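subagent[fold] <- orchestrator: predict structure for attached chain, return tokens only, no commentary.
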Amino acid sequence: MLRQIYEWTLSLASSRHAVWALAVVSFVESSFFPIPPDALLVPMIIADPRRAWFYALVATVSSVLGGFLGYAIGYYAFDTIGEPLLRLYGVTEQYLSLQHLYDQWGAWLIVIKGATPIPYKLVTIASGAFHFDLATFTVASVISRGIRFFLIAALLWRFGEPIRDFIDKRLTLVFTVTVAALVGGFLAVGMVR
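subagent[fold] -> orchestrator:
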């Protein structure tokens, strides 16, 4: 079934409704849908590199807006909807390990986890369940999702088709290095003050 959903998502990338499909998939992936928007974003950028930045913006904005739905699920309906979703995707254990990290790292956790291939729905639902500050959640989500989608857009815009294979094989490495550089930059700025 998951393979069918993935194939269906890929078929949307070549339809005349691709931008709307990207927005919808980015929105619902942030709270319950299993397929990441990258499955649409990558082929759309490969097909039309001139629109790479627009596609990244659509994915970012839609994902952040969908994150509010995930946040609401965690905040208002964790027991009835949130916890079953986390069990369905096999991330309950990760959720439990996040609880103490939110108290210590908060926004950094959202930025780092939201920019990586870790399911963003875990972050959004957990943020709501832990009653994390909504304004901080919003800013951290914009940063993390922007990093993820604009990095993909930049790499595909610059290198095209060959980078797609590289991203597919080393997605975790690409995002980890980018996030580490971002966090290092913020820490360096904090030390300079």
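orchestrator: received. Logging for downstream: Residues 2-192 form one domain. Residues 147 and 182 are 9 Å apart (CA to CA).
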